[in-house]
Design goal:
The chain is of the alpha+beta class. About 30% of the residues lie in helices and about 30% in strands. Strands 7, 8, 9, 10, 11, 12, 13, 14 and 15 form a nine-stranded mixed beta sheet that branches. Strands 2-1-6-5-3-4 form a six-stranded antiparallel beta sheet. Strand 10 and strand 11 form a beta hairpin. The chain is globular, with a radius of gyration of 19 Å. The chain has two domains: about 120 residues, 2-Layer Sandwich (D-amino Acid Aminotransferase, Chain A, domain 1); about 160 residues, Alpha-Beta Barrel (D-amino Acid Aminotransferase, Chain A, domain 2), CATH 3.20.10. The two termini are about 20 Å apart. It binds pyridoxal-5'-phosphate. The site of pyridoxal-5'-phosphate has 13 residues, from helix 6 and strand 13. One of its GO terms (molecular function) is branched-chain-amino-acid transaminase activity.
């Protein structure tokens, strides 16, 4: 695999970053994951805008223009022959040459790394035809989940708790309501209404979420943006998650209780279909 590191395209085993990099020492950095379908990027503009927002919230500047970032994404897609998959982009506050809690001087170059994941068959996933199972866990993350930081230890532990419980993922719960999945936004469907938590600093503002809610509105589906409980999810007609890497993925079990029929529901299936079609058409 050819990867990008600070201006260079190199084979992955030749890519080097300093041990003093603040991403490595302090999780001081942000990331984006953009999916690729038919060799083209899905919602690149949304990801570039959210990257800029994450950086700004942490007093970092865009390391280059969105157009230059787009060119790097495209170059990696071409160099690695990606038809379906993802591109991971990470920007950290650079490597000031020692460890210090205070931020380094502003002219310290940011570290920019990108690499590809080749995932043939990503869109035609058999998992989407079965649906996934989730457990609930307490949400003990920090209070700025709207910033897409590389501080992913708790979501990673959540994923392990799910694995140990024999399921696919965990939904995090705070003050009695679901915030989001370990790496996705969470939804239920009740009596034809799609319910998902409203945007705030409590959750990541999913790029897939924004697109799916737009398509739902265009298809005259009813959407309510509010918190919901695990009990509501267990008694819902349907549940699903969204993210750049799973698109729209049905959820058929929550904490051991079957949701709806236990099979992917019509709303989730329809939204997945619309999302994939519209996204392919708009891909760049
Ligand atoms: N919520 C969390 C915590 C995430 O990590 C992610 C994606 O990684 C999402 C939601 C979904 O965001 P997007 O649709 O932009 O991939």
């Amino acid at each position: 695999r050819i990867v990008y590191v600070n201006g260079d395209y190199v084979p992955e085993d030749e890519a080097k970053v300093s041990i003093f990099d603040r991403g490595f020492l302090m999780a001081d950095g942000v990331y984006e994951v953009t999916s690729v379908l038919g060799g083209k990027l899905i919602d690149f503009d949304g990801h570039a805008k959210r990257l800029e927002r994450s950086l700004t919230e942490l007093d970092m500047a865009m390391p280059m223009s969105a157009d230059d970032l787009l060119a790097i994404h495209r170059e990696l897609v071409a160099k690695n022959g990606i038809d379906e998959g993802m591109i991971y982009l990470q920007v950290t506050r650079g490597a000031p040459g020692d460890r210090d809690f205070a931020f380094p001087p502003e002219d310290t170059p940011l570290t920019v790394v990108l690499f590809t994941h080749n995932k043939p068959g990503l869109a035609d996933s058999p998992v989407a035809k079965q649906g996934i199972k989730v457990i609930s866990i307490e949400d003990i993350r920090w209070g700025r989940r709207d910033i897409k930081t590389v501080q992913l230890l708790y979501p990673s532990m959540g994923k392990m708790m799910a694995k140990k419980a024999g399921v696919d993922d965990a939904w995090m719960v705070e003050d009695g309501a679901v915030t989001e999945g370990t790496s996705n936004n969470a939804y239920i469907v009740k009596n034809g209404t799609i319910i998902t938590r409203q945007l705030s600093t409590d959750i990541l503002h999913g790029i897939t979420r924004a697109a799916v809610l737009r398509f739902a509105a265009e298809a005259q589906m009813k959407v309510e943006e509010r918190p919901f409980t695990i009990e509501e999810a267990q008694n819902a007609d349907e549940a699903f998650i969204t993210s750049a890497s799973t698109f729209v993925m049905p959820v058929v079990e929550v904490d051991g209780a079957t949701v709806g029929t236990g099979r992917p529901g019509p709303v989730a299936a329809r939204l997945r279909e619309i999302y994939l079609e519209e996204s392919r058409n708009a891909a760049i």
